[in-house]
Amino acid sequence: DYTAYETPCGFMSDWLNEFWDTKDDDDYRFVYMGPKGSWTPFHADVFRSFSWSANICGRKKWIFYPPGEEGNLRNKYGHLVYDVDSAELLDENLYPNYKKVRSRIEVIQEAGEIIYVPSGWHHQVYNLEDTISINHNWMNGCNVDICWEYVKDNLSQVQQEIEDCKGMDGWDQQCQLILKASCGIDYGEFLQFMEVIATNRIRLLQVHLVHKSRNLTREQRQPGSDETPSVDNIKCLADEKKADVSGACDSYTSVMNERLYSPMTEGQINHCLFDLYSVKNVLCDMIRTPEFTSLNDCENKANELIVKIEKIINSII
């Protein structure tokens, strides 16, 4: 197999593509090629995810606005400006809030450099030369709450647009269909997303507990040791480990296989726990959201996953 590149270490915790690797759809990794003079209009990234862009060749000019400034770049009809360098922004009647803009950041990206775009930062990009870049959209426990809020906000917009149909049968389901079409994900799929992320980390921690119990058993057998292994909370038996790995998504399989034969480091354990706490926070918000609990069986699935997360966390800490 040919490996064209490796994801930089700082960007490897990538829930979005970990989940999309379990699906038949395209993922959020792509190669961008743009000739000199081409450009990308003003926008924020899908799901309000993070993104990174590595220039293989060429030069780009990036224009960034911090979260919140985009409100000053909307016209009187609420539409976001297409080009932040357009002269139409000077029309105070059309863009009454443009004069309130306080922060604009410009960066020139050279070949061999990587640009990181935080969640919610709107940006516009010019290709100053013929350019090729590798790009990922990604999210993890540091911004999944922002992404979930973005999906909820999009549902609110959908509900407002078809509010005149609210009395019709199946209105909630229709809102979810439109949300999926416009936003790229609906509430049910976001729950599946959380299930995949949580399940992969629960399996890793279960395997770690097996290693830990085996090590304690070996210590117990040594002369002068009377320590009894505490394995009451371990549900993953040694002969089940390979079955657990076979259920993991492709992007996690190699990590899982490595963990079969060696215990996790403290940093890896803490990373898994952080991810699980982040998933749990989203799940708790989901079951407080009426539009989520009205969907078939979603509330039960979310509650069951919360119980599993709490159980493995209690086994570790």
UniProtKB/TrEMBL annotation:
Stored PANTHER family: 2-OXOGLUTARATE AND IRON-DEPENDENT OXYGENASE JMJD4 (PTHR12480:SF6), ARGININE DEMETHYLASE AND LYSYL-HYDROXYLASE JMJD (PTHR12480)
Catalytic activity, reaction form: L-lysyl-[protein] + 2-oxoglutarate + O2 = 4-hydroxy-L-lysyl-[protein] + succinate + CO2
Source organism superkingdom: Eukaryota
Record-given protein name: Jumonji domain-containing protein 4
GO molecular function terms listed in the Swiss-Prot or TrEMBL record: 2-oxoglutarate-dependent dioxygenase activity; sequence-specific DNA binding
InterPro entries assigned to the protein according to its UniProt record, in alphabetical order: JmjC_dom, JMJD6_ArgDemeth/LysHydrox
Pfam families for the chain: JmjC
SUPFAM superfamilies: Clavaminate synthase-like (SSF51197)
UniProt similarity note: Belongs to the JMJD6 family.
JmjC domain location: 1-155
Coiled coil: none
GO cellular component: cytoplasm; nucleus
One GO term (biological process): positive regulation of translational termination
